[in-house]
Amino acid sequence: MTPTLRGPCATNRCARLMWAVAAFVVILAAANSFADEGADAPSRGEALSPVAPPGYLDPRKVALGGQLFHDPILSKRGMLSCSSCHDLRAGGTIAVRRTVGYEGRMHAFNAPTIFNVGNSHRLGWRGSTTSLAAQNLKVLLDPNLMGNQWEALLPRLNANDAYRNRFTAVYGRAADADAVLDALVTFQRSLVTPDAPFDRYLKGDTTAISGHQKLGYKLFRDYGCISCHQGSNVGGNMLQIFGVFGDPGSDRSLTASEVEARLDDSDRSQDVFRVPSLRNVELTAPYFHDGRTDSLREAIAIMAKSQLGRALPDGDICAIELFLKSLTGTYDGKALASPAAGRQ
Known about the structure:
CATH class of the largest domain: Mainly Alpha
Oligomer: single chain
Number of domains: 2
Number of helices: 12
CATH topology of the largest domain: Cytochrome Bc1 Complex, Chain D, domain 2
Shape: globular
Strand order of the largest sheet: 1-2
Structural class: mainly alpha
Number of strands: 4
Radius of gyration: 21 Å
């Protein structure tokens, strides 16, 4: 049976019924034509690659890092954990525009997903670090993130019998800065989400994604999205101006003081950001550095106008959206779930 687009594409069935019918006809015809042309299988030299296992990771370090990741002991007041902003039960982030930090100030940036972070060359929205250890250090010491200092954190960890014993068993010594960062990094490198339908397609299973999704992938390539969103993470490797073809607008609730608190002097006049990974993107709303939209379709339209300088037809947007939904993988042997309802 040919899949319909009514469920995944129409957000308001009554108001958008005519659009849904027209989009279905256009995409169905295009998808059939696409298959007829023999473009059913991935071509050689693909810019995208499947998510691969992380290789051998010491299971003791993974377990210790996972315990630290979920424990508010890492924050100065014992109130925040890494998982407070990076929920592994959903998309590796949380469904809020911008998280509230240690001192109660809203961050200037949306929390990026932690999944597949080990496969990204650049980290954070500004892409200013390329080392997971450096990124974790930055988070631990940032006054509005974990707000901690080694002089306070290490004695706290070593005064805890369970942690002191685990660090001694794993590292042969009490907790120190290098061991804490190594455990966190090792755990985070384990957070891969393989076996997305698109991964199976890239490996040769031409039935893993639908004809509509294959069409969306073709459009994703033909429009040039793939020039920035490439590699196994479909992004995460380069910096790009946001608003190549004009001002993409901004979140009006972002105050100047919030921006000043989060950006370096050299960045204040620039709209340059790390190209985010699109892995599991259907689960990581709201989108963009400022969380400006919860709608994946709207995010695609914004990107087309600001980065490509064009307004895409509704049918093309819908097809690209369906392709992006084929990038949702599994974690710990289970399909990733939709995030909890409710936005802030």
